[in-house]
């Protein structure tokens, strides 16, 4: 006998439609409801939403979701073919379809002691060879055997790069700067195209003992080219040698374009190469990271790669329901696509991670800040949220007011470090420990307040103290046991794979960045307009830009 339902039009089931229905259903429940007040169910939910991998722990229990949500999200990932696409990424398939190339940043951290997956062998061997050459250069500087143009040993490195050639190495240098290391040199990062970061360095560094690292995948980026020209002019002038001589003694080039480095004057022995199949924002692990190795030592750089590699293997082999990068990606996609939350804050509770928001802005927004899918059609759903943030405790004194009582819903990652190494002095250590404790307490309190709002106030005091804290702001707490090289490597690789998983969910190519090109072209023609006299205003179509050009020229005379 037919069931009474069999004649009805069957409902078209897709994981996405199911997730939308589930989201509607969940809207009725606040985070206060989900976190419960000591109920067993709430406790079980919290337990099921916390995950540990090595020295990383992630707690999703303050996200607006249940274990059922995670199961539905997992179905969605499976229906998008995540497992096969993950395999293809590691096997060197041409996943960057618009540029017809692989995305093999994972090869840059594949250790020589382990057989790489089929398809990655030659890439891993190439990266290992360059890593060896990089280590030799670092050793030459550390042992005092790299001499500048006037015969003095190197004391300072000026790393000149921008975007992916700057943000990753700078973040790691800052994060690990307080560690005892074998470093014999100081490292300074220069990225802004106006030369503002170079000027003070030119005032205080010794030109005879300064080595430039010109880091640029394309070797054409104007910001970097102009900075390096100014730096070479400074060294040449100060040392009374020509620029070619400076290049021979005090310049290392890192790029995917060896021919351009040669044309520029970087001697072949001072060139480090990575291939096109490592994207700029994924290039920290390549010789782009040389300044980290210069500052902190090769052992430390290797530990960074080991942490990233451990995360690669976890990502490659772990089922989705326990796979940290996949879970972070799914939770992020849930917030933007199903809960319609348009912005995501990254809030490190550790001053050493102050550049994490900027690093993740490039990684996530340049990768998935797109609206045209792999099929060439406009997507009909949300993609990457606007990512922003700052050091959490400082943000508390600035923008948290809006997060607690404003009108916007925001999701957040709180990133905290459980313990830090002490210094030699007992008295200072005690004081530092108290600061560590204070910071962690603030991190946990803010995460709680984001989630619960006024409900964070104990029941008995609620009537007296309620102040309109909105709560219901979903957030994850990412806890690192210590901020060591391994942990930061694992953390950054986790976010890299998050980006990849989200690109699979959203059907995007995360490895190109076509939207950044036109601005550069427009600037090139405006550059000419500003350089030539008289200025050809009639070439500038819009009156706003024309009048600004006029004003700029008037004030530059
Ligand atoms: O390393 P480079 O070729 O100098 O590129 C530096 C940066 O500039 C570009 O505009 C891209 O948007 C970034 O993805 C890249 O990391």
From TrEMBL:
<keyword id="KW-0963">Cytoplasm</keyword>
<feature type="active site" description="Proton donor">
    <location>
        <position position="366"/>
    </location>
</feature>
<keyword id="KW-0413">Isomerase</keyword>
<dbReference type="InterPro" id="IPR035482">
    <property type="entry name" value="SIS_PGI_2"/>
</dbReference>
<dbReference type="InterPro" id="IPR001672">
    <property type="entry name" value="G6P_Isomerase"/>
</dbReference>
<comment type="pathway">
    <text>Carbohydrate biosynthesis; gluconeogenesis.</text>
</comment>
<dbReference type="InterPro" id="IPR023096">
    <property type="entry name" value="G6P_Isomerase_C"/>
</dbReference>
<comment type="pathway">
    <text>Carbohydrate degradation; glycolysis; D-glyceraldehyde 3-phosphate and glycerone phosphate from D-glucose: step 2/4.</text>
</comment>
<dbReference type="InterPro" id="IPR018189">
    <property type="entry name" value="Phosphoglucose_isomerase_CS"/>
</dbReference>
<dbReference type="Pfam" id="PF00342">
    <property type="entry name" value="PGI"/>
</dbReference>
<feature type="active site">
    <location>
        <position position="520"/>
    </location>
</feature>
<protein>
    <recommendedName>
        <fullName>Glucose-6-phosphate isomerase</fullName>
        <ecNumber>5.3.1.9</ecNumber>
    </recommendedName>
</protein>
<keyword id="KW-0312">Gluconeogenesis</keyword>
<dbReference type="GO" id="GO:0004347">
    <property type="term" value="F:glucose-6-phosphate isomerase activity"/>
</dbReference>
<comment type="similarity">
    <text>Belongs to the GPI family.</text>
</comment>
<dbReference type="InterPro" id="IPR046348">
    <property type="entry name" value="SIS_dom_sf"/>
</dbReference>
<dbReference type="InterPro" id="IPR035476">
    <property type="entry name" value="SIS_PGI_1"/>
</dbReference>
<comment type="function">
    <text>Catalyzes the reversible isomerization of glucose-6-phosphate to fructose-6-phosphate.</text>
</comment>
<keyword id="KW-0324">Glycolysis</keyword>
<feature type="active site">
    <location>
        <position position="397"/>
    </location>
</feature>
